[in-house]
Amino acid sequence: MTVSWHGVFPAACTQFHADFSLDIPGTLKHVDAMLAAGVHGMIMMGSVGENTTLEWSEKCDLLRATVQHIGKKVPVLVGVAEYTTAQACRWAAESQKLGADGLMVLPAMVYKSDARETMAHFRSVAKAGDLPIMIYNNPPAYKVDVTPEMFVELADEPKFACIKESSDNPRRITDIINLTGDRYKIFAGVDDLFLECVLLGAVGWISGLVNAFPAENRLIWDLVQADRWKEALAIYRWYTPLLHLDTHVKLVQYIKLASAECGFGTELTRPPRLPLVGTEREEVLAVIRRAIATRPRASGK
User: Fold this and answer.
1) Does domain 7-295 have CATH number 3.10.150.10?
2) How far apart are CA 218 and CA 226, in angstroms?
3) Domain ranges of the chain
C-alpha cells in the first residue's frame, strides 16, 4: 500500500496482560477504536508502543497481526528503534516481509552518535529494503539531533520521504522547508506543538493522546483542514493540558492512564516503567478527568 503522508497517524499503545505478556487482541481492539474515529495511518511499536520492551518474536507477531487485521484500510508504519545499525537493518527488512507499508526510523538507541554516524545509520536502514521511511528526530528524548543541514545531505536518498519533527523547536520546520523546499513531508511530532507546526507547514501529526481521545483529535484536525482556525484554537486550548502529557519522560504511563480512563485498554506498562502512584498519579488523573468532563462535541466537524 502506498503511504499518503498526510493526516493523523497514532503512535499506538501496545497492550499487555496482567502477567506482562503481549496482548495482541487488546491492542487490535484499541487500534479499531482509532480507525473508527477516522485516523489516516497507524504507527505500531513506536516510543508510545514500548518498542524496546518487546522481544523479536513479539514484534513479528504484533506487526503480522496488525497488518492482517487492518487489511489496507490505512497504511501501517512500524518503529525501528534498535541498539545497533545491524539490528535496525534486520528489523527493517523483516518488517517489509511482514507487510508493513513504511518505517519510522530512529537513531540507534543508547549511543549518542555524531552527524556522520547518524546519517550513516539512516542510509544503512534505507538500503535494507524498499519501504519508504519517516525519519524521527527527537533530540530531547534520544540525545541525537538530525539538523536541517543534515536533511539537505540526506535528500539524495529517495526512500527518505517524511520527517517526524520532535525537536521541540517549531522553527525547525521553516528551516527545513527553506533549505529543502518540498523535498520532505513534515509531520508534527510533539502533541502540544501541533497547531503551531501545521501553521508552519506540517502536513501530518504523529499523536500520542489520540490513543485516549481519538474523536476529539480527529475533530481538531478536520477543523484545521477546513481553515476553521478559531474553532480549532478553542479545541486546542481545551486539549493542551492533555497534550502536555506527551512531553514528559513518563509519557507512556500518562497516555496509557488517559486511554484507560477513556475506556481504551489498560494502563499497564512493562518495567522498568511502573504504574503511577501517589501525588503524581492524582495530578495526572485530575488533568484527564477535567478534560473528560469538559470535552467538546466531536460531532461538530
Assistant:
1) no
2) 12
3) 7-295
Overall pTM > 0.90: yes
CA distances from 187 to 8, 82, 84, 103, 190 (A): 9, 22, 25, 14, 9
At 216-270, the pLDDT tens digits run: 999 999 999 999 999 999 999 999 999 999 999 999 999 999 999 999 999 999 9
Render pLDDT for 16-45 as a digit per residue (tens, 0 to 9): 999 999 999 999 999 999 999 999 999 999
